[in-house]
Amino acid sequence: MSVKNQTSVSFQTSDDLLQKLVDTAEEKSRENLKRFEDRLVLIEGGGYEKIWLETQPMGGEMYAKRNLEAGINNQLLFMENQREDGRIPGSVACENGRITPQFNKFQGFCFPSAALNVYYLMGKDPGYLDLLYTTLERFDSYLWRVRDSDGDGCLETWCKYDTGEDHALRYGDAPNDWSEEVPPEGCSVVPMASMDIMSFSYASRETLAKISRIQKDIRREAFWKEKAACVQDKIRSYLWDDTAGACFDRDKNHRVLRTMTHNNLRAMYWNSFTQPMADRFVKEHLLNPEEFWTHMPLPSVAVNDPLFRNVTTNDWSGQAEALTYQRAIRALENYGYDSLIPELGEKLFRAIGRDCVFVQQYDPFTAEPSLVCLDGEQDCYGPALLSVLEYAARMYGVHIEHDAVFWGTVGGHESVYEQIWGDRSFKLVQNGNGAEGFMNGRKVFEAGPGVKVITGLDGNVLGVKKLSKNGDVKSIRQRL
Questions:
Q1: Quick check: is 352 in a domain?
Q2: Which of 159, 166, 163 is closest to 191 using CA atoms?
Q3: What pLDDT does residue 212 have?
Q4: Per-residue confidence (pLDDT) for residue 433, from 0 to 100
Q5: Same domain, 407 and 470
Q6: Residue 4 predicted with pLDDT over 80
Q7: What start and end residues bound the annotated signal peptide (predicted)?
Q8: Looking at the 3D structure of the chain, how many domains does it have?
Q9: pLDDT mean over 405-418
Q10: pLDDT score at 372
Q11: Span 430-434, average pLDDT
């Protein structure tokens, strides 16, 4: 497959802490670049030596702004190793020098939107797009053929690793992993009707509709939009509790599991909530300091929930996860909550601090990093590294999404952020009180602090959003 673009990023800021964090994150991220046979990939890191479906397509897409080859391979290795029945490996390892797909869990699905954006970043290779379409179509078919074992119209999770919720108490006695194509028997909770697995299908179908639009197949686009809407309708009618303003999974006997989980935010990442559903969850729960908006926000389980546990080792029963911070960016952007991103970024920057040790989990009450997360002290955990780099890009720099460029002018510090993408340069210069955007050295706009400017690839301003409460969307001045 052809790749038309090469990429790199440079960033200088007067914020000493952020400069150290970004420089260290870039250096340590390079340690997570590995060869799987002759393929360069970005592994999860921090003791996790594979590429995992829950992290590494998303991580690869984020890192593609620095190394496009690894970003592409982090998508292709999952597509190329799809089974004949449509199942995508939950992880891909390199064992004894050989690429080894593993099918003993789903391990999340941070894949469709990331893989589609890589199509744009690589220069719109039609063969890649065809492969992505086939992969998603076959996987969606697999889900509905296999993962609705009781025929109630709601897809199921069968083990803890299906949704990447290691040690989560809400799973009860469910197995950690599961390789069979029939659900485990004799468990108290699973097979569990799951907002996550339903969202896998929604995200697949939504992306299939987008691919169909790119390929100018209007009939097929309409088909996949309707199919996606059916999934969203089932999530709303079966898993959403309108009195609580949140989604809850159901156990094998269809009983509602009342644990208040951050999985609602995950559903927002997959875009499977309606806008009113997202508004209610964000306003009533995500921003509630008694639940998810703690000193270090985004615990996996609301801190006032009976199943919350503040466990410092790899455990999704409580502590704030770096992976949740990574997913939160797209989740919030999907529903217009861009102004929360700088708040979360600053929280993460301060929690990591000048020691620049990048770990998996953080205490939601003290923001202390949990340094022991596998068999020893942890560092170089990819989702923490990439979260720092991506929050910096969203707040002070540039993000390319499809055929648009997003410029973040949080302000408060002097900074220069430059994204090289093929033969194009996108540079954002901030003086603390305002910003100037340049394309290939030509100024295309000026803006005040606290906004997100959206332009086309030609520099034409398409829109402006607030990135802070004081952001002035009227401050933009086009300079074409």
A1: yes
A2: 159
A3: 98
A4: 87
A5: yes
A6: no
A7: none
A8: 2
A9: 96
A10: 67
A11: 90
Residue 238 lies in a domain: no
Rg (CA), the chain: 21
Three-state SS for 134-183 is HHHHHHHHHHHHHCCCCCCCCCEECCHHHCCCCCCHHHCCCCCCCCCCCC
Tell me: do 389 and 470 sit in the same domain: no
Distance CA 182, CA 190 (A): 12
Confidence band for 374, pLDDT divided at 50, 70 and 90: low
- The answer to the question of residue 138 being in a domain is no
Cα-flanking dihedrals φ and ψ of residue 179, to 5°? Answer: -100, -15
Return d(Cα 24, Cα 8) in angstroms, integer: 16
Q: Is residue 167 part of a domain?
A: no
pLDDT over 70 at 2, yes or no: no
Of the three residues 373, 396, 419, the one that is the final residue of a domain is 396
Contact 191, 158 (CB under 8 A): yes
Q: Identify the pLDDT of residue 368.
A: 96
CA-CA distances (angstroms) from residue 387 to 290, 335, 349?
A: 25, 19, 9
Spatial CA neighbour of 344 closest among 281, 396, 296:
296
β-pairing, 424-431 vs 361-362, is unpaired
> How many beta carbons lie within 10 A of that of residue 469, not counting itself?
8
Structure tokens at 383: 């989702």
- Residue 80's φ and ψ, nearest 5 degrees, are -70, -20
Q: Quick check: 262 pLDDT over 80?
A: yes
Cα within 13 Å of Cα(34), Cβ side: 21
Q: What are phi and psi of 264, to 5 degrees?
A: -60, -40
Tokens of 184: 């485990």
* pLDDT for the residue numbered 480: 59
Tokens standing for 233?
A: 């309708």
Mean pLDDT over residues 357-370, rounded?
97
Selection from 170, 193, 192, 194 nearest residue 309 by Cα: 170
Residue that terminates a domain, selected from 367, 396, 425: 396
| Domain extent for 331 | 295-396
Q: How far apart are CA 277 and CA 279, in angstroms?
A: 5
**Co-location of 404 and 449 in the same domain:** yes
